[in-house]
Specification:
Helices cover 37% and strands 23% of the residues. It is of the alpha/beta class. The longest helix is centred in the middle third of the chain and has 18 residues, at 205-222.
């Protein structure tokens, strides 16, 4: 850990050893489309501690992936723009750094695994070349050394016959194997924070489980902080330590994994949990969240979830809900957070 801090200090002077590993504070992102400013992330805040897994969950369009892109500094600008907030790595705001410094942070300290490995990998280069390029560019490694490290990483993530497969191209791997290659690339420079953005999308259930076990094993070995972006609450229950629930571009609930599942304090979280298929409810109807996620260009007044909420009252349509903490370490953006939290139904 001391060596890690020394390297980070070389990249980001002023690091605080006592600060959280990663802290996102009131992050705001907008997209300018046809002259209109559309909010995609509206004041998102959460903290990731060393060695822990934070799951960010929510429906499509809730702002999960845009948040990860803003943290990484890979947001397409234009049309996307970070309009407020801070992203603190060991207490240093990386949003305030120049592009050269942020480029150094990417990969070296914060890395990402994308959900579509086939699109993320270059089809014209072998996977060994793409992994080795990281060592040549960032570490000044020779081609022989880069090849050796690439083989080690492919072996680490469970690619069979890694020594021979480094010369293969992305289309020669299955979906699950391509995702392992993406994980190898993300881990190459030994980052402190790994963001996994829907890493098991389009994979079958068995391969999903293998990928998540791989991520957890490597996280434990390297004591990384892991941000898991997903809509699969089954995966969250299996691997996460903490949960941030996003809706309409904002975090509407934060808690540890136990409280999230046993005592949710936001109606949206409770509705998500009710919608999980249950093996002990054979023959019954699946519960759904009525309505559709809101249009970010025309959000409802008050609480954006109120048109779909089973617990909504008049105040929900008129007033923006405050952030309420019904228990220590458990917060919810709901007028009735305490009542929802204590409701055992």
């Amino acid at each position: 850990m001391a060596e890690t801090m020394r390297v980070i200090g070389d990249t980001l002077p002023g690091v605080d050893r006592n600060a959280p590993l990663l802290e996102v504070d009131s992050l705001r992102v907008e997209f300018q489309v046809r002259g209109e400013r559309i909010p995609a992330v509206r004041g998102a805040s959460f903290t990731l501690e060393q060695g822990r897994t934070l799951a960010i969950v929510g429906e499509s369009g809730s702002g999960k992936s845009v948040t990860s892109q803003a943290i990484m500094g890979i947001l397409d600008t234009p049309p996307g723009h970070i309009t407020g907030g801070r992203v603190l790595l060991h207490g240093v705001d990386i949003l305030e750094q120049d592009e050269e410094t942020r480029r150094t942070v990417r990969g070296n300290h914060i890395a990402i695994v994308f959900q579509d490995a086939l699109s993320a990998l270059n089809p014209l280069w072998s996977v060994g070349f793409q992994i080795g390029e990281l060592f040549r560019v960032h570490r000044g490694a020779s081609r022989r050394e880069a090849k050796r490290r690439a083989i080690e990483l492919l072996d680490l993530v469970g690619i069979p016959d890694a020594k021979n497969r480094i010369g293969h191209y992305p289309h020669q791997f299955s979906g699950g194997m391509r995702q392992r290659v993406m994980i190898a690339m993300a881990l190459a420079l030994e980052p402190e924070v790994l963001i996994a953005d829907e890493p098991t999308t389009a994979l079958d259930v068995t391969v999903q489980a293998q990928i998540m076990r791989l991520l957890k094993r490597i996280q434990a070995e390297r004591h990384m902080g892991l941000i898991l972006i997903t809509h699969d609450l089954g995966v969250v229950a299996d691997v996460a330590d903490d949960v941030a629930v996003m809706y309409a571009g904002e975090v509407v609930e934060r808690a540890d994994i136990y409280d999230t599942f046993k005592r949710p304090a936001h109606p949206y979280t409770k509705a998500l949990l009710r919608a999980i298929p249950r093996v002990d409810a054979v023959g019954g109807e699946l519960e759904v969240i009525r309505g559709l996620p809101p249009n970010p260009a025309a959000l409802p007044s008050g609480c954006p979830f109120h048109p779909r909420c089973f617990a909504a009252e008049d105040v929900c349509a008129d007033e923006v809900p405050p952030w309420i903490e019904p228990a220590e370490g458990h917060g919810s953006r709901c007028h009735f957070a305490e009542e929802v939290y204590t409701d055992e139904r």
